[in-house]
Amino acid sequence: MSHTLVIAEHDQGQVKLASFSAAAFAQQIAASAGGSFDILVLGSGVSAAAEALRSAGAKTVLVADHAELAQPLADRYAQVIADVVKARGATLVVGAVSTFTKDVLPRAAALVDAGMVSDVVGLEGDAFRRVMFAGNVLATVRLEGAIKFVTVRSAAFAAATPSSAQSPVEAVAVDAGALPKFATFVNREVKKSARPDATEARIIVSGGRALKNSEDFERLVGGLADTLGAAVGSSRALVDSGITPNSLQIGQTGKIVAPDLYLAVGISGAIQHMAGMKDTKIIAAINKDAEAPIFEVADYGLVADVYEAVPEMIQKLKK
Ligand SMILES: Cc1cc2nc3c(=O)[nH]c(=O)nc-3n(C[C@H](O)[C@H](O)[C@H](O)COP(=O)(O)OP(=O)(O)OC[C@H]3O[C@@H](n4cnc5c(N)ncnc54)[C@H](O)[C@@H]3O)c2cc1C
Predict the structure, then answer these.
(1) Using a 6 Å CB cutoff, which residues line ligand 1?
(2) Residue 167: is it exposed, middle or buried by C-beta count within 10 angstroms (0-12/13-18/19+)?
(3) What b/e sequence results for 244-276 when a residue is b if at least 16 CB atoms lie within 10 Å of its CB, and e otherwise?
(4) Distance (Å) of CA 281 to CA 19, 155, 181, 258, 297
(5) What is the pLDDT of residues 94-150, one digit of tens each?
(6) Stated pTM of the model
(7) Other CB atoms closer than 10 Å to residue 236's CB: what's the count?
(8) What is residue 245's predicted lDDT score, i.e. its pLDDT?
(9) For residue 97, how far is its CA from the centre of ligand 1 (angstroms)?
């Protein structure tokens, strides 16, 4: 019997869709090993987030709501998670793969002396299947010890079917005086964008080195994305040359995405890029080189110059 604790992630109270995938994984564990799962949401003024999580099938939605948790500072969050794990006797802690969980969960695991496995895409008995080396190796890992921590790829676990039964919400006491204060919040700079976030979007238009400068990227990749109501993404080549911000990078060292449609515009298809988007349902690519590796994974391919094809596509789509 397992008792799983899912760590929900939210942005200023808006629950990230990936949290529902982590809940789906917890449901799968509960179905195969028996037991139940709770969801923990941390922050300040997070009642709306807790409310949104009530349909995810958890036994209880636990809420650690305190002014000291207003910003996701890893040392404080890890301490609260560790306290809840001990108090509730959780044997498995689950989060969706993200920069937030990369920062927080290993610290929490260390505090409760637990082993951790990241990038989990499946279960094999009591072991976890995880991807390694840019998706080229699929490892099966068994964790020893009473408590286990895992992060799961949201693409591998469809979001939990909303349950008609609403989970009860329970407040978790936060001992603010005992929270570590190694880190202090200074400032948050949020790039305002009307476009959806690539990790949550159904369609992504992503640009590569074919785009010569920021203006061309915005006009072609941004323009096509806006016509389709899509998010924008970028290869690392454009990030390294300062044409696009780091936040747009898709790939092994960028965001891992799995939209319904990924449109690669002038991207060669290096393995490090594909590691971040190959779980996409439909991949379409435009490249002037018919031998480009992206065409090996693409469902639809157009051999063309992006400077000619994309304006034409935008024009036709607008009609
Ligand atoms: C440790 C490590 C981690 C990495 N992590 C990442 C990562 O997270 N994400 C990532 O993207 N990369 C990553 N990379 C870099 C990766 O190896 C590639 O260098 C990069 O993805 C290449 O980007 P690109 O496809 O835009 O550029 P290129 O490989 O230069 O390809 C450009 C493509 O555009 C085509 N093209 C050029 N002009 C036109 C035109 N006018 N019309 C149509 N097509 C045109 C070319 O035929 C070519 O196929 C990583 C590398 C390392 C070593």
Answers:
(1) 208-210, 235-237, 249-254, 266-268, 270, 272-273, 276, 287-289, 292, 305-307
(2) buried
(3) beeebbbbbebbbbbbebbbbbbbbbbeebbbb
(4) 20, 10, 43, 7, 11
(5) 999 999 999 999 999 999 999 999 999 999 988 999 998 877 889 999 999 999 999
(6) 0.85
(7) 22
(8) 94
(9) 24
